[in-house]
Design a protein that fits this description.
Elements: H1 3-10, H2 15-36, H3 38-41, E1 47-49, H4 64-75, E2 78-80, E3 86-88, E4 92-94, H5 101-106, E5 117-119, E6 124-126, H6 135-138, H7 148-174, H8 176-194, H9 200-226, H10 234-258, H11 262-270, H12 273-283, H13 288-293, H14 297-311, H15 335-344, H16 346-370, H17 380-389, H18 391-398, H19 401-424, H20 432-459, H21 465-486, H22 496-511, H23 527-532
Antiparallel strand pairs: 1-6, 2-3, 4-5
Helix pairs in contact: 1-14, 2-9, 2-10, 2-12, 7-8, 7-9, 7-21, 8-9, 8-11, 8-12, 9-10, 10-17, 10-18, 10-20, 15-16, 16-20, 16-21, 16-22, 18-20, 19-20, 19-22
Subcellular location: Membrane
Main location: membrane
Membrane topology: Multi-pass membrane protein
Length: about 525
């Protein structure tokens, strides 16, 4: 029998596959914590120039807070904003250096002409009411260094890019299980090291490395899980994994509220990799599909028997022996040669370009909306939870919608409707309705972004599945790297970024109609199988 028949005989969605899906949803959840931790670790807060650092106002009989407010009112230039609120300068102060506090108080400090303005020369004072300890405070990432948190976030996506390029090929060469275990060890090491970062340069480097290895964890988890279930269950298990991602929003917001120190927060989101590594080592079985395409039929049979025992099924010996005539157990060509053949075929080029563009756009829209939660105008911890809560019904719906209307119908409809929602939101005045339209856009793109993983797995042949996933994911990470800079366009026109995202989403949705429908089809094993998928366009 062929592999899908063998999988059916041992239970194509039995206790093992269900337990594996739940287990591997945990590293996906932790990956959400790692990628978004900077929302809190680099949280923006009010700041102003330090003056009279050693003067604690004891002679004036003031509390610490009253003293800091007095210093700010005396030494910091201010203006009245449109909403009649007083706004203090962040990067300049009056030149009161060398003058004692009492002397300046006696001067007419309200008349700013008596003091010249100078850049901050004694450091900054930070409002710690919302974010008590951040990298912005520890590394003084304000004024001329205020863009460095964006650089660090882009560095993480850059690591995702590198992980996508080399991670997929690594999983194809050494196997899904070993790639998963190795990447867990490495992301544990880099995440722990970042707890002790003494400066911003090392912090950025370690963020890059953490992103690299975290991406390999997610690629290995998704591919391994999808290869152990029947075609009808692939969307289900993929969305079980991504439900872990959605829960990560709740976990991170809660942890950030309980652990306001960014170093301890980084420690809290990294330590879970250790028990997870032990569980994976004991429980995770290598993908039998990977064994088969690497001409390791005996190892594949042993893996299938382990799964069968866990599922409470009995299997015959040599369950795969009769299927030597099928494509799946033929000796595979080398990965480089297969990749070259795929890219030299017309079908391979069409799929690669279209999928890469789709992943790129969906990444820009998804992360662009996710990193703009502050636009809701509510508490940052609550707004982050709202952003995650939107994803849970999206992932649940994605378990069923692709089986009802197919991969193409789901992707096209969600991207087009999501894009329209984004483009319409600037037509409404700021407030609840504009926020609802933006969240509707995120709801739609969450469905398509979740499904695109399954669709990519179902399109690429087994020999190149991790490599193909890595290539598509690389395009996604390039999009992610551009998001912080896309959001800067708000300075040109507040609605420009969301209109760009919405327009690109509509285009990607329409182009997805050119990809093959894979609903209910067996996973392609060879390039020839992938080419045959286009008869179902």
């Amino acid at each position: 029998m062929d592999f899908d028949e063998a999988l059916k005989s041992i239970g194509n969605f039995g206790k093992y596959q269900k337990a594996l899906s739940l287990l591997l949803s945990v590293p996906i959840l932790i990956g959400c914590l790692q990628i978004y931790v900077q929302v809190f670790a680099a949280g923006e807060s009010d700041h102003w120039c330090q003056s009279w650092k050693e003067d604690n106002c004891k002679d004036l009989n003031l509390t610490e807070i009253q003293c800091e407010n007095l210093k700010k009112e005396i030494s910091i230039p201010a203006k009245v904003a449109d909403d009649n609120k007083t706004v203090f300068e962040h990067c300049e102060k009056y030149n009161v250096t060398g003058k004692d506090l009492e002397t300046v108080m006696l001067a007419d400090y309200i008349n700013s002409t008596i003091f010249e303005k100078i850049p901050c020369d004694e450091g900054w004072v930070h409002d710690r009411s919302t974010f008590p300890s951040t990298i912005v405070i520890d590394f003084e990432l304000v004024c001329g260094r205020s863009n460095l948190p964006n650089v660090a976030q882009s560095a993480y996506f850059g690591g995702y890019l590198v992980g996508s390029i080399f991670g997929g090929a690594t999983a194809d060469v050494i196997g899904r299980r070993w790639a998963l275990l190795l990447s867990n060890i490495l992301v544990l090491a880099t995440g722990m090291a970042n707890v002790f970062s003494p400066n911003m340069l090392l912090y950025i480097i370690l963020r890059f490395l953490t992103g690299t290895f975290a991406r390999l964890v997610s690629i290995s988890s998704i591919v391994l899980t999808a290869e152990l279930v029947s075609p009808v269950r692939r969307v289900t298990v993929t969305n079980i994994l991504f439900l872990g991602w959605a829960l990560g929003y709740f976990v991170l917001s809660g942890l950030a509220k309980l652990i306001p120190n960014w170093r301890f927060l980084q420690l809290a989101i990294t330590v879970p990799y250790l028990p997870l590594l032990i569980l994976e080592l004991l429980f995770v079985v290598e993908s039998p599909r990977w064994f088969i395409v690497n001409d390791k039929t005996e190892e594949a049979e042993r893996a299938l028997k382990k799964i069968a025992r866990f599922n409470g099924r009995n299997t015959a010996d040599n369950i795969l022996k009769p299927s030597k005539s099928t494509h799946e157990i033929q000796t595979p060509e080398k990965t480089k040669r297969l990749l070259k053949q795929l890219l030299h075929s017309r079908v391979g080029i069409l799929i690669t370009i279209n999928m890469c563009f789709n992943w790129f756009v969906q990444s820009v829209v998804y992360y662009g909306l996710s990193l703009s939660t502050s636009s809701l105008g509510i508490d940052p911890y609550i707004s982050f939870i709202v952003s995650g809560a939107i994803e849970i019904p999206a992932y649940v719906l994605c378990m069923y919608l692709p089986e009802w209307i197919g991969r193409k119908g789901t992707t096209c409809s969600t991207l087009v409707f999501g894009g329209i929602s984004c483009c319409l939101s600037p037509l409404l005045p700021p407030g609840v309705w504009r926020a609802l339209l933006a969240m509707a856009g995120k709801f739609c793109v969450t469905i398509s972004f979740s499904l695109v993983y399954t669709w990519a797995i179902e399109i690429t042949p087994t020999s190149l599945r991790s490599t193909g996933m890595g290539l598509f994911s690389m395009s996604s990470r390039i999009g992610g790297m551009l998001v912080p800079f896309l959001l800067i366009l708000e300075d040109v026109w507040l609605s420009l970024p969301i209109i760009i995202m919405g327009s690109a989403s509509i285009i990607a949705g329409l182009l997805s109609l050119l990809l093959p429908e894979t609903k209910g089809r067996p996973l392609p094993c060879t390039i020839h199988d992938t080419e045959n998928l286009y008869q179902y366009v």
